[in-house]
C-alpha cells in the first residue's frame, strides 16, 4: 500500500545531494515499468513536533538538482510500508524534488 503524505505543514532541507540508488552489487536501480534510473536524496523533514531524516527515492533521467542545505518540496511524496526477511520499515518516494518557492536553487552549489 502506498500512502500519500500531506507535506503542507512540513519543511524539507536537503541533507545529502542526490545519489544513484544502487542494488547490493552497486548497480544503479531502475524503475521496473519505465527503465528510468532511480536516485536517493536525504532530506531533513521538520514540523512543530521536531525533525526526522528521511531518504526519498525519485525516478528521473537525471538526478534532482538540489544542493545541501537548500529548502525543497518533494512532489507527490508517498510512504510505502515494507517487510522483508523479518525486517520492516517505511520507504519514501516522490515524483520529483524541487526547490521550495522563494529559496535559492541548487545552482549555487560549489560557490
What does this structure look like?
The protein is mainly β and 111 residues long. Helices cover 0% and strands 50% of the residues. It has an eight-stranded mixed β-sheet, with no helix packed on it. It comes from Amycolatopsis bartoniae. This is Putative regulatory protein.
Main traits of this protein?
111 residues, mainly beta, disordered C terminus, Putative regulatory protein
Give me the number of helical elements.
0
Distance between the termini: 42 Å
The mean pLDDT is: 91
The tally of beta strands, per DSSP, is 8
Q: Please compute the radius of gyration using only Cα atoms.
A: 14 Å
Give helix and strand order, one letter per element, not per position.
Answer: EEEEEEEE
**Portion in strands:** over 45%
Helix-strand blueprint:
Layout lengths: L2 E2 L6 E10 L17 E10 L2 E10 L11 E5 L2 E7 L2 E8 L1 E4 L12
Brief sketch in words of this structure:
The protein is mainly beta. It is built from no helices and eight strands.
